[in-house]
């Protein structure tokens, strides 16, 4: 008799898309972590009983020392890594934040032009999103849209 091992539920992950002057903020994972030196968008696991917005607010504060002011859902999908976890990815467009992003946990962070995203070695799970950002990049350059809020004192 064949019994299939129970599959683990997907890991829920939130990430923020932060734009400034037609550039997007990307982060390179530290060398000594899972998927070391791969590029990603800032964010992380959504904890139990935590909303997407609360998780994003917590992650941006921990990773970049910024305070989320306003965000909007942009994209989401499930991705299964070969021989690895399945992740339920949620991406929010960070429309405003307070403070200047500081690298608190990454190998490096960088503001890059949207069309240059394909030149970086991103996590496989982010590649579909990158194509969506490139295809829809005009929405990030609309007049009156700001990705930086008031400075924290």
Assess the beta-strand content as a share of residues.
35-45%
Helical coverage, percent range: 10-25%
**What are the low-pLDDT stretches, counting only 5+ consecutive residues below 50?**
143-153
Q: What pattern of helices and strands is seen along the backbone?
A: EEEEHEEEH
Give the overall shape: globular
Note the gap between the termini.
Answer: 65 Å
Q: From the helix content, strand content and strand pairing, which structural class follows?
A: alpha+beta
Count of beta strands: 7
Report on the biggest sheet.
7 strands, mixed
Mean of residue pLDDT? 89
Rg from alpha-carbon coordinates: 16 Å
So how many helices?
Answer: 2
Can you characterise this structure?
The protein has helices at 52-64, 127-135, and strands spanning 11-20, 23-28, 39-40, 43-45, 67-80, 86-98, 108-113. It is built from two helices and seven strands. It is an alpha+beta fold. The chain is globular, with a radius of gyration of 16 Å. The N and C termini lie far apart (65 Å). Strands 1, 2, 3, 4, 5, 6 and 7 form a seven-stranded mixed β-sheet that branches. Strand 1 and strand 2 (23-28) form a beta hairpin. The longest helix is centred in the middle third of the chain and has 13 residues, at 52-64.
């Amino acid at each position: 008799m064949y019994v299939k091992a129970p599959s683990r539920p997907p890991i829920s992950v939130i990430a923020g898309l932060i734009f400034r002057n037609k550039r997007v903020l990307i982060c390179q994972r530290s060398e000594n972590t899972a998927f070391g030196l791969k590029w990603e968008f800032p964010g992380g696991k959504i904890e139990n009983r935590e909303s997407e917005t609360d998780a994003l607010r917590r992650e941006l504060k921990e990773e970049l020392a910024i305070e989320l002011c306003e965000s909007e859902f942009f994209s989401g999908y499930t991705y299964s890594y070969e021989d690895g976890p399945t992740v339920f990815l949620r991406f929010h467009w960070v429309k405003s934040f307070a403070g200047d992003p500081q690298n608190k946990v990454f190998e490096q962070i960088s503001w890059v032009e949207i069309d240059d995203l394909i030149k970086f070695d991103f996590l496989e799970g982010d590649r579909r999103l990158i194509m969506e950002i490139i295809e829809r990049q005009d929405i990030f350059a609309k007049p009156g849209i700001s990705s930086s809020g008031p400075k924290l004192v």
